[in-house]
Each structure stands twice: as C-alpha cells, then as structure tokens.
Amino acid sequence: MERCRNCKGHDIIEDDRTADVVCRSCGEVQGRVLYNGPDWFEEEQSRIGPAVDDFSTRVFGEESSDKIRDTFRMISDACGSDLEIRRVALVLLERFEASIQNLDKNFVVGALLCMAHKECERDYSIGEIARRLNTDMIRVGRVMRRLECLT
Length: 151
Hints:
By secondary structure, the chain is mostly helical. It folds into two domains: 1-33; 42-149, Cyclin A, domain 1 (Orthogonal Bundle), CATH 1.10.472. Helices cover 50% and strands 8% of the residues. It contains seven helices and three strands, in the order E-E-E-H-H-H-H-H-H-H. The protein has a three-stranded antiparallel β-sheet with strand order 1-2-3, with no helix packed on it. A hairpin with a 5-residue loop joins strand 2 and strand 3 (29-32). Helix 2 (52-60) packs across helix 3 (66-79), helix 5 (105-119) crosses helix 6 and helix 6 (126-133) packs across helix 7 (137-149). The protein starts with 11 loop residues before the first strand and ends with a helix.
C-alpha cells in the first residue's frame, strides 16, 4: 500500500478530475495518473474519429514505412489522453520522417516526446520519459539533439 511522502498516511486516491494522485489526509499531491488505455471504445469510434492506422495513412500516405506507422502508434500510446503533447509529437514525426528512417524507433519516440513537452512548455525530464518508455536516457538525448540540429 502506498504511503504519503508528507504525512506517511495511507489514504491515497486518484483524482479523476485533475489526474493527480493525492493524499486525502494532508492534501499533498503525490504524482500524476498516467492513462494507458485505448482512446476510444470500438462502438464509439465513428463518433470520436478514425483508428490510428487510418489516421497515419492520411498523414503519411499509403507508402509510409511500417517503422513510421509503429512510431506513430507508440507516440499515441505513450501520450494517453494528453492530446496537446500527442499532436505536437506527431507534427514533429511528420517533419522529421525522412531523418529518422535509420534510427531506433524507441529512441525516436522518446526524443519526439521530449521535444513536444519542451515546445508545449511542460515540465519533463529526459530520464522520466525514457523510464516511461523503458529505454535508454542517453540515447534518447542524443537523438533529440540530432533532431534539434535539423530545425
């Protein structure tokens, strides 16, 4: 069972409204809830929008590589419900499509997410994003610097 960092209490909840993990005893915010579920339910797909594969085909065309489609899917999965970060990361993916063909997609996804967080002026660390993706922080940083040199 989780304990509060501040008061050492056990009454920790996930606030669905703010996406915060909060101690109900003292009010200390312990962290953020990361949503890793699907973006829509199958029966709601027509109301909400097309599946990722349909969207990636519209953005990158029929001849886009499997790597680009996989990278697109990984970005969408990693962002969860954060639509602003997802939108910026996907715009960056489109911008750097030709430059990332020979790079490991895990490091590319990490770099694009870091760049998206930076562009959206959100707090982030390369280490935090690399841990979320279960990949190497140093290599994510190298790919990020490489892509930033292209802008």
